[in-house]
Amino acid sequence: MAGTDDAAVAAADEALYVLTAVLLTPAQFPSVLGDDYPEACMALGLAPRADGYGLVLGQDGDGARWTVVIDDVSLVAVAIASWDCGMEYELSPDERAVVAALPGWPLAVAVSAPGVPAPHDPAPEVTEGPPLSPPDTSTWGPAQRRLGADEIALQWAAWRDQINDEKFSTPDEPAQAAELSTQGTEAGASAEPAPDGGKVPRSGHRGVKRVLAEARAYVDSPPPLGRVRSSFAPGDARTLRADGPGWSMVARTDDIAFVLLDEEPGEVLPVGRGPELPGLLEALDRMAVRPI
């Protein structure tokens, strides 16, 4: 396993200035790293552990970037929840929980530890293999597409307000598409709604048909773990996230869906409920992994 050599483990034992932490579990993982949980683990050289991992990103006393992988998922979850609530929480994993200390960061981090040199990769002599680095999100591609889907899930109401339900009244009506900003930031991609929309694809969009067909196939032949995830939404609804080769879909079980495609840079394609979407979303929700 990458980063488990003596030098890297020793680095984990030294003082680490924790900057942030993320979960790497079947139901919650940085989607920028992959379309599913095993792919995200592979990006870090980790075996897909059933209970998942916690990733602690920080700097050592020399300012070097390190990602410490621990198996105490609950500890990281509590820390993240506390920080989200504006509370202080000292994340200090027990050394027995450390699975690996990986050089570099797999995600973009916009802050740095005070009183130490600027963030930089560890010296080659204390690492095994190249350091981790965030996926390139400067141009449209799988990483940018997945980040865009993340933003739609977070800003569902803003995106939903752009869609006129009358656009889905008949099969031949054009569905209004919104353009997704592809300008990256230090923390990832920005996805601000474009109220006036961009191109106007027909509801029989070939790429959308392919996505819906592949999503239906997931119901009969379960995909890799994490390809379909279900999370909380207002009321009795659920927010669904499904990914596949070249596509991402975000939906509410009581509403419509949005599709993003690698071959359609910056485009967000809405899918009306119609007679088939509700049943598909219900079936996907039943098989989806959920946060514990």
User: How many domain regions?
Assistant: 2
Helix content: 10-25%
Mean pLDDT: 85
Helix/strand-derived class?
alpha+beta
DSSP, total strands: 12
Proportion of residues in extended strands = 15-25%
Low confidence ranges: 1-12, 169-174, 182-203
**Separation of termini?**
27 Å
N-to-C order of helices and strands: HEHEEHEHHEEEHEEEEEH
Largest sheet: 6 strands, antiparallel
Q: What oligomerization state is this entry in?
A: single chain
Number of continuous helical runs: 7
Going across the biggest sheet, name each strand in turn: 5-12-11-10-9-8
| Shape call | elongated
Radius of gyration: 20 Å
Describe this structure in words.
Residues 116-143, 167-204 are annotated as: Disordered. This protein has 292 residues and is of the alpha+beta class. It folds into 2 domains: 6-126, no CATH class; 142-287, no CATH class. It is 24% helix and 21% strand. It has helices spanning 6-13, 37-43, 73-84, 142-154, 156-160, 206-220, 277-287; strands at residues 17-24, 53-59, 65-70, 98-103, 178-179, 184-185, 188-189, 228-232, 238-244, 247-252, 257-261, 267-271. The strands form 3 sheets. The protein has a 6-stranded antiparallel sheet with strand order 5-12-11-10-9-8, with helices on both faces. A 4-stranded antiparallel sheet has the order 1-2-3-4. Helix 6 (206-220) crosses helix 7 (277-287). The protein is elongated, with a radius of gyration of 20 Å. The two termini are 27 Å apart. The model is unreliable at 1-12, 169-174 and 182-203 (pLDDT under 50).
